[in-house]
């Protein structure tokens, strides 16, 4: 009598493990067959025979793939491969309140790296209208000093415009997910608090570089602009 719950638990674990393996096998099978977006995937019975498992296990694995956005059901066609909304899936778990401290710090670092690395995209795609828009954003900002790190409203407006100028939709989606984490980490006490902030390149100076400089100068300027954030990570 006492062993029944244990047997049930073991069975549940084994079933879950099998579905995990079948899920991976289906993805590998689709890759091997070089199927792409819009292609119909094999039917359940064919997958069950190929992988040597029951249709119930296949059905559960396919349900997972649908939830991930990898496949979808089409009338009269069956299941077809789709292009998943990667950031739609990630955004559900990109909640700073449920992520561990190490992950939060690493996401903070990712944003710093992205903004230094977007230099060439900006110079290739920026327009005079973009420069004017950036000028309007920074018009009311105080000069860079040793006494503040950044104003969150100015920071969001300016850096969001930079992501927009890249005209990279994937990058813009990623930035929208990063901002709440960045703000949370900044205020959470996870990073070192500097006693004296270093003077840094301001948003206004970054706009000057975008208008009159080159990608290399902008990379250096953005690195300097973010200096105080890097110092909180590396104790510079």
Q: How does this model look, in words?
A:
The protein is mainly alpha-helical and 236 residues long. The chain has two domains: 4-84, Winged helix-like DNA-binding domain superfamily/Winged helix DNA-binding domain (Arc Repressor Mutant, subunit A), CATH 1.10.10.10; 88-234, GntR ligand-binding domain-like (Four Helix Bundle (Hemerythrin (Met), subunit A)). It contains twelve helices and two strands. It has helices at residues 4-32, 44-51, 55-67, 86-91, 101-117, 119-125, 128-138, 152-166, 169-188, 203-212, 215-225, 227-234; strands spanning 71-74, 78-81. It has a two-stranded antiparallel ribbon. The chain is elongated and about 70 Å long.
Short structural description:
The protein is mainly alpha-helical and 236 residues long. Helix content is 66%, strand content 3%.
Radius of gyration: 25 Å
Low-confidence blocks of residues: none
- In helices, the fraction of residues equals 55-70%
The CATH class name of the largest domain reads Mainly Alpha
Count the domains. 2
Number of strands: 2
Under CATH, the homologous superfamily of the largest domain reads GntR ligand-binding domain-like
* Average pLDDT reading: 83
Shape: elongated
Topology readout:
Blueprint: H1 4-32, H2 44-51, H3 55-67, E1 71-74, E2 78-81, H4 86-91, H5 101-117, H6 119-125, H7 128-138, H8 152-166, H9 169-188, H10 203-212, H11 215-225, H12 227-234
Antiparallel strand pairs: 1-2
